[in-house]
Amino acid sequence: MLIASGVQHLEVGSTTVEEFCSAFPDAKRWMSMFPKKQSITTAMAEVCYSGRPELFTMFLCMIGNKDMNFDLAWLQAQLPDIIAVRQAVEQESNMIPTPAFCCLSVLQGVKASQGSASLLKH
Fold first, then answer.
1. Bridge partner residues of 39 (DSSP)
2. CA contacts within 13 A on the Cβ side of 84
3. Domain ranges of the chain
């Protein structure tokens, strides 16, 4: 929605973790590992995150997700299939699946060519 309105990324400046949490969802409470008065910029640097601030809590969920405990070599080897699963689900359902869902689908041998209906049953 931000990009559609012409905003490429948020400028967070000296926004504190507490202020940031009031604006962005953190369902698993990953942000609670940072002091409330710490700047969000410092929190992002602590975990080597350099992406868009508005996606920071999603990044924390992905690195903290026990379902994403995959070997890096396996992820690199399976990347084309992981991307194909993501694209198939997005095209057929207009939803963007989580990285864990895509990886688990590939791990379970589900092919993107089977369509998102079979992928979403997992």
1. 16
2. 13
3. 17-64, 68-119
Q: What is the token pair recorded at 19? A: 């202020």
Digitized pLDDT (tens) for each residue of the chain, 122 residues in all? 455 566 566 678 889 999 988 887 777 778 888 999 999 999 888 887 888 888 888 878 776 666 666 777 888 888 899 889 888 988 888 877 777 788 888 988 865 555 444 444 44
Give the CA distances from residue 71 to residues 30, 54, 76, 89, 117, in Å, rounded to whole numbers and listed in that order: 23, 27, 9, 24, 27
Q: What are phi and psi of 107, to 5 degrees?
A: -60, -40
From residue 54, give the alpha-carbon distance in Å to each of 1, 16, 23, 26: 11, 14, 9, 11
Report field, pTM of the whole predicted structure over 0.90: no
What lies within 8 Å, CB to CB, of 38 at 6+ separation is 16, 17
Q: CA-to-CA distance for 93 and 95, rounded, in angstroms?
A: 5
